Amino acid sequence: MATFLVRYGELALKSSPVRREFERTLQRNILTQFLAAGRTCRLRADHGHLYVESDEPESMRLVRRVFGVTSVSPVEEIPTDLDGIRTKVLVWADSLLRPGSSFAIRARRTGSHSFTSQELARDLGGRILSAWPERGLSVDLDDPAVELDVEVRGPRTYLYSSRMDGPGGFPLGVAGRVVALVDGLRGAVGAYLMMKRGCRVAFVTAGVGELFVGGTLLRFDPKARVTGSAGTEPEAVVRELVGQTHADGVVLPLLVDDFPAARRTWGETVLFSPTLAFTEEETAQQWRRIEELAG
Asked: Domains in the chain, ordered, with CATH?
């Protein structure tokens, strides 16, 4: 059974009632990813973290697609016992530290314990140096070759040495509904950025937009509605879908010079165009990052 420690960022800035609702939405969205992939998982939570348990280690890529998640780490979970932590860290470090490696112990602690975070880090770092003097290991707190994280959270301790970024932002579904026209790269990036702000997006595809939506964006929201516009004016399809979904606004792939005409065309409809000031290279760079997260 693989365990992933899931961190989330902007959610922590909200008031307690809003934060609880956002956390529940985040958990539902994680479960949706697993259900869409035909997999199962178990979720646990404590203050500021979620833990996802899955019988498939590669399931971490599913968690990385969930908006609101800032990073994910595969962790080893052990009881919070000082002697046990010392023993496990030495076994763990033995497999990670090569001759001449620099390292840092990043210790964090939540709850009441007989040691501070700094004391734990010094203790573990000293034991590693003493265990293999022939390797020429060194401590480098600023730019180590290997970081060993020890997170003590009440009665459980989590060990990890890597973290993978998530998309960040807010969980899908906490910020209303929009309809996005995706007819190419700029529209795809704009739709993604609205999803990142918590909006549920219904897609209208035109031209190559179907490839961007079906091949990538639906991985972030497997339940999203997709409507093609073959043989029909795309804007007419967008207008119809806005009425059907009671959307709060429309997302369009506009450039700065396009906006005045679009404003006149759409009247009182709320318009969003997150890529309005993006260059072509900036748009392409954003999309490369989106594809990497989509897995």
From this structure: 2-78 (3.30.70.1510), 81-154 (3.30.2130.30), 177-294 (3.40.50.620)
